[in-house]
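User: Show me a protein chain along with its predicted structure.
Assistant: Here is one chain, sequence first, then structure tokens.
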Amino acid sequence: MKEIRIGVVGIGHLGSYHLQKYAQIEGCRIVGVADEMPERAREAAERYGCKAFTNFSELAESVDAVSVAVPTGAHYEVASVFLKAGVDVLLEKPISVTLAEADALLSLAKAKDLILQIGLVERFNPAVVALESVMSQPLFIESHRLHPFFERGTDVDVILDLMIHDLDLLLHFVHSAVEAVEAVGISVLSDKVDIANARLTFQNGCVANITASRVSAKTLQKIRFFGPEGYHAVNYQKKELVSLARKRGPDGQVAIVQNPVEIVMHDALEAEIRAFVRSVAERTEPAVSGQEGRDALALALKINDAIDRSRARSSRDLPAPPSREPSPAGGRRSP
């Protein structure tokens, strides 16, 4: 394989992990890192023997492929510079803040025949990979992604921060357009929605109930699928899959049996980055395409719209506050 010159923009929590994984992949050479904090870029450059940049656009002239792990609001600005320069891009989720930005990125990648992969890492979770072999057509899905509060990620709401992973998997497995969206959400510790619940109805009749929170005491990451062929439960955090099927015995009785599903353990982020490198080297469709990232964003924005409508109804239906007429001097108001 021809050597691929790699860059990483945004050397925070995720960007640092990207660097670790690239350093382990044969055929990749990390040539530069960029971050708005010069000291952070310098430290990473010293660790990986590459050049540090504070202006990310200068890095575009030196690389064949790049990971973009900057705050969501800067996704379009950064990724578009690299795509215009002819560089393949692995862009952390969500693809962007608006559909207009997402469409512009898709157009740039298509015009230059470039790889644009979106970092929806749960696709590479070993339990989700194993689920592919037994999943048929789900009829009902229930998902919970609950996390303690961290300042990181609060530049966007919990739908774009956390729930978008589950939205991507719903679209991946249901294979149907969303017909109706109901949702509620509230702000708790940030100025954006921190906990949200959505009920989605798909055109093929499937219904999904999804909850995401970043203000929970404990972490819970589970999704359950119910369908005519059985029941499948994924624990993302533990990388576990429970898969049950209905089976009719020789006597005609129906029993519930466990599917013999093998889970091959691996590092999900490393698998994601290896998939990106493989697409870059072989010029093949990325494992999670820009279009799939755009579809997940579109659904996330529909949920946000539904939350706004729910909030508007709630404020409209609130009873008027009681009048507080002053009581006579020295007296008490009647109850």
